[in-house]
Task: structure prediction
Amino acid sequence: MLGTENVASLNGPFRENAAFDALSATDVWKNIISHLWVNRDTADPCFGTSDTKAWEDAESKIPADVVGVEITADRQQALIYVSGIPDYTIETPLILAEFKPGNIYGVYRLTTHPVADERPVHDFASKGPIGFSVNGASMFNYTDTFTFNGKDAWTYDANAAEPAICNSDIAHSTPQDFPPFPKSLGIFHGHQVSQLFLTELNDPFALGQLAHSKLLGFAIDSNPIYGPIGYTSKDQASGLKMLKSSYVKRRWTELSDKGASHRSSIAGWVILNWDKSNEGGESLLNLSGKRKADLLYTDGAKTGPVTYSGRDANLAAEIKLLDQEKGLKRDSLGYVYWESGVTLSNGTMTSVRNYLLKSSDLWGPDIGALIVPVPFQLIHREGFIVADVGIFAEDYEYVPGYGDLDFFNGTDSYLPDRAASAYHYVTPFDAKVTDADRKKKAMFPYYVGIQFKSKADAFNDLIDQSEKVRFFRANRGDLTTVFDLGTVGKAADGKSVPGSVPDVWQREIINGN
Result:
């Protein structure tokens, strides 16, 4: 990481004591730049490595870690240049190894003061990278973007559905040009925190020590992402603990809780939002965003028993069972739901809503059924997973007060590295710090929740880079380079290719858009 001992690796002006002292006193240095895992040996840069020739041939030409840093004139924002490749050896997945990592020519813009989002429904954590690790590797959200049978009601949890196509660190690459998948940049990523990087960082959680976790990365709304050990309030007296997610598996759908083991209803947050502000809204709040009327059941009545007069025998039986065992109700728009009780950490009870889908054709697979993940379907390959509770994002309900983290999967608590409190996301694990298998027990939603806490910066979208193009064309002369690796890759003969990273990355982005 960059620090006072690495001044010689910075660009010319900042090698002078006065200039460096002025920079290191700013929040953009203390809260962002000083945490970055920079490829700082400009004389002998670090390049990607892998354990197979096919991936090694691709990665060995790409510089690893953070390769450039610029700041704006007001020193309130930092531009972080990454290739998306970490400096540890990347294990090649056994399946879909054709999806090779590529140089993403990534640039992220972080601000020292994330922009508050006052809207009831915040920006969704979707569309490729939702953040990046301090070593430049991409962080993806909880899903692989596919839904069960393409019906938009059940979004796969990538960490439950994709292990067969990931390496042992639960990471893989998006396809670059591999039909029938959409073209991509070959973005190497994980849908949960890298165990290898936790170890490389010497994070206390990886070491089995009860000390505050380190800063692991940043979300695209500029909020930092920390490991799982932290304080529960702004006061250090609250003590350190393993911070837990407030998303709960909806096991009340199972037979053991008088359910039918059918995924016939979806979680309340999909309909209501975290603060129940969307009860009167027209659209769902999962990644599909479809109209409620297209997915949810209503009998058209406002009062009286819930009835059904259609020809869907499965739905008719489900309504009868749920009304008998749970009791069916209607919300303000007439959509039918049933309630379940959840015990909070303090022992008190609360209730959550489960909204009935309008057709059994929209149901997810029965709990415990064998299903084939979508990537396997697309390449006509056999591979089954068990559809236990937790395979889909909608298998979880957000229950305020159940854990330590909010709907966005973060908390405003004391951070020792800032000597102050600040809002930050947390990577929770359902484990004790002393558990031998603790690093394998990541908790949904892993990085960021369903939505971002603060406003996501459109500049940070790796799919639609039009905002980057506009910004660079308008502001190139107002940026000051803090660090530039000075190497942009390797040639066929294995020699490093010299060049300014900001210049080359910007040219690639502008020409590609």
In short: The first helix runs from residue 17 to 24.
